[in-house]
Amino acid sequence: MSEPKLLTLDISGIEPEAGAPAPERIVSGNPQFRTWNVEEHGDDLYAGVWESTSGKWRIEYDEWEYCRILSGISVITEEGGEARTVRAGDSFVLRPGFRGSWEVLETTRKEYVIRL
Question: Which of 3, 48, 73, 80 is deepest in the core (most CB within 10 A)?
Answer without folding.
Answer: 48
